[in-house]
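Action item from last week, closing it out:
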Amino acid sequence: MSTLPLPKWLAFSVFTLLPLLALAQPRAALHNPAGYFPADQARFQPGAPAPVRPPGLPSAGARPLRPGVTVFGWLPAWVPMTYARQVDFALVSHVAYGGYRASEQGELQVPAADSAQPLATLVHRANPRGQVLLNLGYHEPATGAALLETAGGSARQALVEALARQVGATGANGVHLAFSFRPRATPAVEPRPASKSEYESAEKRLKKTRNELNDQNKALKQNYKTLQAVRNDFVQRKKSGATIAPTELAEYQRQQRQQQADSSQFIADRDRFRAEEAALSSHMVLPPAPAARPDGRPAAVRELLAALRQALPSATLTLELPAIDSARVYAGLLALGPPPVNLCVLQAFDYTAARPDDPGPLAPVQPSAAWGPQALATSVDYYLKQKLRPAQLLVGLIAPGKVWTVYTSGAPIRYWYVTSRSLAIQPVKAQRVDEASGSLRVELDSLRGMLPQAPHVAWADDTTTLAARYAWATGRGLGGVTIWALGFDAPDAPLWSFVRAHLTGAATPTAAPVAPDTTGLAADTAQASPRASEDNGPQTFTEAMTEAESWVKGSALAQVVLLFLVVLLAGAWVGMLVGAAQTARYWVPFARRLAWMLVLLLGTGALLGLYVSCVGPFRRGSVWLTWLVVLGGLVMLWLAYRRSRPATPLP
């Protein structure tokens, strides 16, 4: 990909000043232009020349999105409109224009270069169905949140009125809310002197707790070995070409998530035990932890959403969800009932940002030992457990990559976000798809225009890895995908090539490769749930059996009734066999009685097979095949009898 020559002063800033300034930045931020690669910072400067549209691409609007497909994109206010005009908005259903901020007093802070009105005109001209949203950001301060906690909600009401006026003035279609909350501090528990009875009681309790923790630790280690053995078995079977049943993979992933949850609980219990043990060694005891004060932020956010919905009844409202809900605000918000928004957008970026000394991918698909317990799958599971509908949740595509400078002298590792425009012109030493994360890992000898020269590692995505992420999202029945950010990448970048290839036209897209998981196996389509089947079309036989199995396993009454019928009819079956053996000379010559006997035997066998398949541990195709073989054998015996039975009854 070629770029236009830069003016001398701009080239000097790119190749000299910006690298040094970037090295002085404490941390790169996804929403801050200073966190991006110096060449990208120069591109987005006001007045910088816009790149030339590559030749040979379809004309804008020639291939619009398929009806019902949702592609949500952000356009930061600091990206010049010259870049926005290169975006084919026929490929985007929702555009969130960033830069609006809410103050603690309810004032709406408009970006300095407010281009919402020309953007709305541009989008609606290219895509009459396109939705332009004002992206409202709010960062909770460290010492309180007057916007949410003011008595009577006067600040919230002022903000709602200001937003309604701005939507009308710009011609936008609605509002996208992006709130950032801080975790509430847990009240500290101070030890106090223990009496003799308290000391003895605590000593006995801690001894019992120590034994329980040891047992839990052993069980966790054993479960880990079992999971590793299953994973190795999957890998060997994959190499040999054997098929892995979706139910096997789904069960492995369920056990893996349970192992992670049990490990987290064990660590919390162990830390509490160590604190109590340390206090007891000084003849002190830890009193019970005080109850945390109720968190009113979820209810306040819901009141703000309700007021905004009332002020803009026909507008589109969307809510941004963090990848990790560390403040637990959104769990409380969703627990209050479905939020009055059209869509919830999962900004699933930077899962490995807390590892500044260990370069890692932006968004691993599955949790893994290499990149930690948090990933796209855990974020989606977290919000779906809060009763959020899959079709209401968007997740997916990430345009920028991340490039790391790896120093051998022990200096702090630096990184920048990088667009495909910049990454495409870098000299690539090697690249491969990381199976644990599903991302593309690129090794670079150096970065052009960067000082000092040092090895670099970049994490990014190409068409294959993007297709894998979308296949994973559609397999979960999610509502669509997101793009951060519009204007970052050239029109022929892998991101847009993928959208044109898979999300446009009237026909159903061809199956894309599914995302790798922690087993290294591409079989995540087994994650599809019964709710996803309701959104995507008729159920298959396998999905119907999965629903039946879930219903039987989840209902104690169903299991009791089914077991009662199985025991009753199994007894009748045994009785029929004994009776048939004793009175064969009287029963066999009569075809009608033999037919009834076969019906009873086969009906009982079918119920036994149903019980074993739904409740027992052998719900596989071999069980059904076994029962079909038995049924076929009995039918053949009956047909043979019909042809060879004597004309008159035996004496």
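Closing note: Residues 544-644 form one domain.
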